[in-house]
Amino acid sequence: MACYKPDNSPCYHVRFMFQGKMLRRSTKTTSVAIAKRLEAKWRNELLKKGMLDEREKISLYEAFDLYLASKKKTKSYKSLQHRIKLLKQYFSNVSIDALQQKDLEIFAYQRMSEGTKLNTVRIDIVAMRGVIKHIDKLGYHAPHIEEYPKVKVNNKRIRFLSLAEEQRLLQ
């Protein structure tokens, strides 16, 4: 059902899926033939745009610097500076779209094998996710990462026995 005429409009509308999104648009015409031609034209334009992907590509280090500059007035700026410095040590300065999920998995594994606390590794991954989201928001070409590495952190508190409980247990 690509071309249809809504009950409340004299004009035909087109509706189709593109990259998992439902797109609807008015053709602003009362002719079915013209509406179908417009639909075909719009689909082709979207396909060309999607295949060419005209968004600018930047390096990973430039992405880090842009993200850091955007967070300059936040309370977590100093901590983020440290995170970015650390991320620059682990990742080479390649185009950001060359970054893959496996690179982040390897990074997380290396950090854990060095003896880094799990929560610190999780914060590093969150910082990397923030960089990628920020670059995408700015309109640069960003990598599509399905799932970021999950680091399970045990946040349960340890309960200590009171003196009375300890005495009762020892008797």
Report low-confidence residues grouped into runs of 5 or more. none
- SSE series: EEEHHHHHH
DSSP strand tally: 3
Query: What is the multimeric organization of the chains shown?
Result: single chain
Strand content: 5-15%
The CATH topology of the largest domain, please?
A: DNA polymerase, domain 1
Radius of gyration: 26 Å
Question: So, the CATH homologous superfamily of the largest domain?
Answer: Tyrosine recombinase, N-terminal domain
Strand order of the largest sheet: 1-2-3
- Overall pLDDT metric: 87
SS-based class: mainly alpha
Task: Characterize the overall form.
Answer: elongated
At CATH level 2, the architecture of the largest domain is Orthogonal Bundle
Sheet of most strands:
3 strands, antiparallel
DSSP helix fraction: 40-55%
CATH class designation of the largest domain: Mainly Alpha
Protein traits:
2 domains; mainly alpha; 171 residues; 51% helix; single chain; DNA polymerase, domain 1
